[in-house]
Design a protein that fits this description.
Number of strands: 8
Mean pLDDT: 96
Low-confidence stretches: none
Strand order of the largest sheet: 2-1-8-7-6-5-4-3
Distance between the termini: 23 Å
CATH topology: TIM Barrel
Order of helices and strands: EHEHEHEHEHEHHEHEHH
CATH superfamily: Aldolase class I
Length: 225
Amino acid sequence: MLRTPLVIVNFKAYAEATGRRAVELARVLSSASRGTGVCVAVAPQAPDLREVAGVGLPVLAQHVDPLTPGAHTGWILPEALREAGAVGSLVNHSEHPLRPEEIGRCVERLREVGLVSVVCAGDPDLCRRVASFRPDFVAVEPPELIGTGRAVSKVRPEVVSEAVRLVKGVDPSVGVLCGAGISTGEDVRKALELGAEGVLLASSVVKARDWRAAAEDVIRGARRP
């Protein structure tokens, strides 16, 4: 499903990556990553999941609810994500936060249906707490740096290294990613040097004037020597 080094591009609700444009961006990312050894995954909006999944990249939902099938109008069922072609879901992004008990139930339900969980956390201590749920990945993302272009791996490197230390202390099998302000290949390279196994980013690629150039830059930073 997902392997490291990993670059996840979150499409959020940007107009630049909605509907037909979401598919176009996924195709650019697929082409840019081919033969690099870097796993690139995308997280489009829920209505675009099935069509984007047809491109061939691993696709993650941006959110999932900890439900079982039944009368739950307006919620997102894990089984529905799987049927749409998603390989997993982001959980607890700072723009869609959940309570700790909800995070745990989401991870459990995703595991039950064979989907990957990528749990976002705003600081190393929360990373440690959510690692106890045994998600596939924890992504440390200080919310104050998201979308700023000020990469956490450069301006607050201790956040990344501490998150890695704490998560691996709970469960060495849980992968650690970092996000917030990641914009360039150099930002990505620094993140991996700090112990992260990949990155989660959004606007630096989605809103770039040249998708291909932006994608190639961050992928280059993730390539192992």
